[in-house]
Every structure is written in structure tokens, then in C-alpha cells.
Automatic annotation (TrEMBL):
This is Uncharacterized protein. The lineage of its organism: Bacteria, Pseudomonadati, Pseudomonadota, Betaproteobacteria, Burkholderiales. It comes from Hydrogenophaga laconesensis. It comes from the Bacteria.
Length: 140
């Protein structure tokens, strides 16, 4: 006795199952694509937020350095009490300009006069400021 081939209905059933699997695969693929897009957007937003926070940390560290330098050098807090909002500077106040002049004098006194004028050019100009050195005459 020989066996006969299975009826054609099984083949039709197999093709329907394959089509359903293909449809389900398409749906899952579209869902995965949407998920990848949303995760990518979240990663970009997170990276932007981290970058902004790193910028703020650098800004706050600079403010801390200025504040401590003013306090330790006895320059007052005029240079350190700046608002945290980043706005373009229009003009420096007279107190701030005076503090900056004091700070420049201290830098010149300790960094240049105290170390045999390493910033002094042969023509008498300061490498740091680009102007004529005023400390050479006072110590001569």
C-alpha cells in the first residue's frame, strides 16, 4: 500500500499562516521603528540637557573663582556679584572698573614685578595688556 500525498487544503492553510506571519512581522517592524525614533529623540534631548548643564557648571566655577579671588585679595565683591543670566555686557560700572584695575595691579605686581618682568617686551610694552608697563618706572 502506498501513501498518497496530503490534500491541497493543507498547502492553502500554510500560505495563509505565512501571510499572517508576514503581516504580523510588518506590524512589529513598524512598532520597532517608532520606538527607535522616540528613543533617538530622547537621547538627543538628554545630550542637549547635559551640554547645557556642563556649560552652567563652567560658568558657576568661573564665578566662584572670581568671588574667592576678590575676597582673598581684598578687592571687594563688586566683581563677583554678577547675575547668573547671560546677557551681553553694555558697559562696566565704575566700581567694577576700579576692581578690575586693582586686580590688574595685583597681577602685575605679583606675576611680573616679583619675577623680573617676564611679560615685559624690549620696547617697554607689556605682553599681557599690550600697553606701556607702568611698574618698571616705579621700581627703578
Amino acid at each position: 500500500m502506498t501513501q498518497t500525498a496530503p490534500p491541497r487544503r493543507i498547502a492553502r492553510h500554510d500560505s495563509m499562516a505565512a501571510r499572517e506571519i508576514a503581516i504580523e512581522h510588518g506590524v512589529l517592524t513598524r512598532q520597532m521603528a517608532g520606538l527607535q525614533r522616540r528613543v533617538g529623540e530622547q537621547l538627543r534631548a538628554c545630550a542637549q540637557q547635559v551640554s547645557a548643564l556642563q556649560d552652567e557648571v563652567v560658568h558657576l566655577r568661573a564665578q566662584l573663582i572670581v568671588s574667592r579671588t576678590c575676597m582673598l585679595w581684598g578687592l571687594g565683591m563688586a566683581g563677583a556679584a554678577r547675575p547668573t543670566a547671560r546677557r551681553p555686557r553694555v558697559a562696566a560700572s565704575s566700581a567694577e572698573a576700579a576692581s578690575m584695575a586693582e586686580a590688574s595691579g595685583v597681577i602685575c605686581q605679583t606675576g611680573c614685578v616679583g619675577h623680573a618682568h617676564p611679560w615685559l617686551e624690549a620696547d617697554g610694552l607689556c605682553r599681557r595688556t599690550g600697553s606701556a608697563c607702568t611698574q618698571v618706572d616705579s621700581n627703578a
